[in-house]
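User: Some background: our group keeps a shared notebook of sequences we're curious about, and every so often someone picks one and asks for a predicted structure to add to the entry. Today it's my turn. The entry only has the sequence so far, pasted here. Could you supply the structure so I can complete it?
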Amino acid sequence: MRTTLALLVSAGAVAAQTITTTPAGFETARGTSSVTYPFSGTMTPVESFRYQEIHTSLVGTPLVNIAAANFRRDESTSTTPTAAARTANIEFKMGHGHRDLFTPDFAANFSAGSSVVFVRKPVNLASWIGPGNGTLEPWSNRLPFDTPFTYNGTDHLIWEVSYDSMAPTGTYNADRVPASGALWTGSSGANLGVGCVATGRTLAFTLATTIFHHVGSRIGRVQANVSNGPANVPVILSVDSVNSNLQVPFLCGTVYAMPTITLPIGTTSSTGASAPFHLTFPFHPGFLTTHLFLQAVSPDPGQAPNFLPIVLSQGEDCLMPALSVANPAAEAYIYHADLNSPFGNGPFFAGSVVCGLEH
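Assistant: Of course. Here's the predicted structure to add to the notebook entry:
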């Protein structure tokens, strides 16, 4: 009898909590869309995922002692056989940041560090096989916080969920609010020539670049990665303001970017590819419509004896795009399936998972 009474009291306490959603305004309204994030576990490597969102819609609405995060399935009236009940080791973080400084860097997006409010532990997630009834679904997955969090209502709110060891995996559609717009204006670099062929490869050593600036001209960013390089070697990015187009007899290729500035951008894998490197820098209006010339260089002892033991990529002519501030999105997200990656894919502005913050 006492146990039953305790459970009833506990259930009543939970029911008495207030839920405020991110994005704001969806406590009693569905998001009208769906997304496989964050609990499907289907990206490579499977069974793990890291997902971070930033929200501006709660500015002016401080939330004291947030005690839990809640998620609900989409309202689709069709059955989703892959959305079975599942378990995963889940962690949940919260913190403050600013959307205008939001980049792929998970940790750096938190302006004063993140708070681990739900310590990583095994969690049972409900079956979302369905079907739904085409209307608002209940909150069926709840993460009760180990440490409450208070949102100051002044900065922008960040929440991040990550997990490993998800089983089973499969499409598991959450309620989502669609959106459009962009905070970043970017353009890909134009190829200059062709890179050398590295030892053990049949295709040329290739550099891929994109240059961005942020709405409001606050920051700029260069993203770069290579493919078909030598295995397990460092990669250096040469940065110059002019196209040198220089033929050097003892080099395997043309020098397009003199090493006016050099940046280490990572190490290649066994397949000769590197993870995306991101350089964020203060923006200046003078950067608009100007060119940067980039080229990757790596050691390659297997080059022909008449060449220095290095390999050059093709050049990249990166033009900083003109300023555009049309329809900036209010919310943004990044994600990555590899929990060891400090950087995520994105930022993206196509919509937000509906998360119910209990306080």
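Suggested note for the entry: Residues 1-15 have pLDDT under 50 and may be disordered. The CA atoms of residues 36 and 173 lie 5 Å apart.
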